[in-house]
Every structure is written in C-alpha cells, then in structure tokens.
C-alpha cells in the first residue's frame, strides 16, 4: 500500500519537484520507515530513523550525484604530449621547459634535423594553444 502511495505521489508532482524528490529518495524511504516504526509504538527506533532521514535529506544529493567523465582528449594533443614527453596535466611552464630541453638537442644549428625541430615546435604550439582555450 505504501509503495502504491509512493508511486502515485511521484507521478502526481511536477517535473522540478519530481527531480528534487528523486534526488532525495533515501530521505523519503527513511522517513517512511520512521512513520511505520512510530505507528508500531517503537518510539526510539522511529526517532533514530527520523534523524537518519534528516541527515539523508542533506547529504543524499551530494553523495548520489554522478561524476561526469573527463572529456576525451584529442589524439593530436596526445601525440604532441608524446613528442615532448609530457603528462596530460602539464602546465604551460612544463610545456615550455620540455620544449626548450628537446629543441636544444634537435635544433638544425646544432646538428639536428629540421623536420624534428619543426615537429617539436608544432607540438609546443598545439599544446600552448590548447591551454589558452
């Protein structure tokens, strides 16, 4: 009977309030259990369940929120990080430091290949442009 009442209650209320009820469903379940315990004459368990219902009302939305997965990284950014030897969470200074260290060995004026220097520069520019977005 209580489950039927719960289904009818949720179906009857509007969209915004329905979202609020669905976020806080553990509080409603505990409050229902407290009411049942109170009707059976168990005052102390009813008080405990009521306190838990209040706690669930406050904490349930933050505990039940679904964490969004981080957006997938562009494969070109992954390749640029591999060229410079950087982690995904590298800062601008880390990018610049890795570029300077690698270009010192790969620069054409120091005997390196022009293609390798161009690849390092393109990787640096891509990653720094991504940091500014």
Account of the 3D structure:
This protein is an all-alpha fold and 133 residues long. The chain has two domains: 2-64; 75-132, DnaJ domain (Helix Hairpins), CATH 1.10.287. It is 76% helix and 0% strand. The chain has seven helices and no strands. It has helices at 2-12, 15-23, 25-39, 43-64, 75-84, 92-106, 114-132. The longest helix is centred in the middle third of the chain and has 22 residues, at 43-64. The radius of gyration is 29 Å and the shape is rod-shaped. It starts with a helix and ends with a helix. 12% of the residues are buried.
Question: What characteristics describe this protein?
Answer:
133 residues; single chain; Helix Hairpins; 2 domains
Distance between the termini: 56 Å
Order of helices and strands: HHHHHHH
**Spans where pLDDT lies below 50 across 5 or more residues:** none
Output mean pLDDT.
83
Number-wise, the strands total 0
How helix-rich are the residues, as a percent range? over 70%
Output the structural class: mainly alpha
Task: List the SSEs and their pairings.
Elements: H1 2-12, H2 15-23, H3 25-39, H4 43-64, H5 75-84, H6 92-106, H7 114-132
Helix pairs in contact: 3-4, 5-7, 6-7
Summarize the structure.
By secondary structure, the chain is mainly α. The chain is built from seven helices and no strands. The model has no long low-confidence stretch (mean pLDDT 83).
């Amino acid at each position: 009977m209580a489950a039927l009442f719960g289904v009818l209650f949720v179906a009857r209320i509007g969209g915004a309030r329905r979202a609020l009820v669905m976020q806080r469903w553990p509080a409603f379940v505990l409050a229902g259990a407290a009411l049942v315990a109170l009707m059976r004459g168990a005052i102390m368990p009813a008080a405990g369940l009521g306190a838990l219902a209040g706690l669930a009302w406050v904490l349930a939305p933050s505990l039940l929120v679904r964490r969004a997965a981080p957006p997938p990284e562009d494969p070109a950014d992954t390749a640029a990080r591999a060229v410079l030897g950087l982690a995904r969470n590298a800062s601008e200074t880390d990018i610049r430091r890795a570029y300077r260290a690698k270009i010192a060995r790969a620069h054409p004026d120091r005997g390196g290949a022009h293609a390798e220097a161009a690849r390092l520069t393109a990787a640096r520019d891509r990653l720094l442009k991504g940091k500014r977005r």
